[in-house]
């Protein structure tokens, strides 16, 4: 049984970032999917992703949507074999290649959590 | 091989419009009718694009409403929604329906209102645009659409050394072209310094690296290869490629490669039995300057990593060897989401007819349009040629 969004979100709120690994081809994703996009396999097991990561790309959002107050950094973070889209902690400023570490989760006003990383 | 032909093209100015969605669309559709010399009786179906009317104006089930507005109530009509690639997807389906003999003559187009005429401010509209990013794995971070393309572009800069100055050249070039387009939202003399000194929206993008929020509509009359001969000035659609890429961004193996665009371009060129080298110009989805750089590489106009230097060297200018966005692109012409893809085909049609006035690409016989939607999740690439 694949990891559900609710399980991914609950785990993130408790400080653990989960991904999924395809039992058939070994591909790891930073977020759940019901079916593996590489091989079509349905056996995607929850995997603990490492807490340490590296910034793959990052931008500072100065003009935020309603419900957010800028500026803040959003990054693609490489965590082991997968990447996730994450916020960078407010007092930090990072660039591509910087080492970062998971620093819990933030919650938008719609109640959905997002991973937060800070400078390692 | 010709798959279908465009025999009528029309669009409104892109900018700020006070009229209703229906009236705005009708302005473009009546232009297209008149250009083709057809009336409602000649239209067999309606393929219509609108991305956000439900969110921006509480207006849904728009295909029959707009069909009624333009006198074709009764024909099969359907709405397409694929974020910013909305009306290119409608166009693809219209071409396929005509090619398959399901309909002889189709009205296809799109409309959108994105300016404060909708009653929504920048923050609210930014949130609506961001609804095209992943609901659970992207939106909660506060990622915006400038942010999506900033993440792709920053990695492109890291991999290839693309610079902010090179990005700025794209804006300068498209504004110069927009000056020559009477339907463009913007168009003025702009310098690289002007771009770099404008406020940062999402680094590396300054305000002048970003397309505007625009209102507008576009429409095309598409008919079969055989029927096209009975019209004045048909142009032939010889290839339409359509591909998607994995969403969210974090799951893309090489985000800055914009894989869907590469796959869609390969499909379009293969159908048309041509290569990128045979294209006389391109209209590409330059919602942000970095998006044009990545698109110019994905459609094969420049080698990977060369898109930025090529823009700075003037190679993609109107008088360059690989012109891109003679219309001014989304950057200067404007970006009314659901109207954008079909408007690119309007530009191709006018250019290939030799009717583009001051922004004419001399002797253009074959061109390509690239329309991207969402977080590089959808791309439609179309090849259009002068009828031989
Ligand atoms: Zn697999």
TrEMBL record, chain A:
Record Gene3D superfamilies: 6.10.30.10
A family per Pfam: zf-ChsH2
ChsH2 rubredoxin-like zinc ribbon domain ranges (all copies): 11-45
Domain ChsH2 C-terminal OB-fold: 48-100
Name assigned to this protein: Zn-ribbon domain-containing OB-fold protein
Originating species: Halomarina ordinaria
Lineage: Archaea, Methanobacteriati, Methanobacteriota, Stenosarchaea group, Halobacteria
From TrEMBL, chain B:
Keyword set includes Ion transport: no
Keyword Transferase: no
GO terms for biological process, alphabetical: isoprenoid biosynthetic process
Annotated ranges, domain Thiolase N-terminal: 6-225
Domain Thiolase C-terminal span(s) in chain numbering: 249-384
Keyword annotations: Isoprene biosynthesis
Protein name per UniProt: Beta-ketoacyl synthase N-terminal-like domain-containing protein
Organism: Halomarina ordinaria
Lineage of source species: Archaea, Methanobacteriati, Methanobacteriota, Stenosarchaea group, Halobacteria
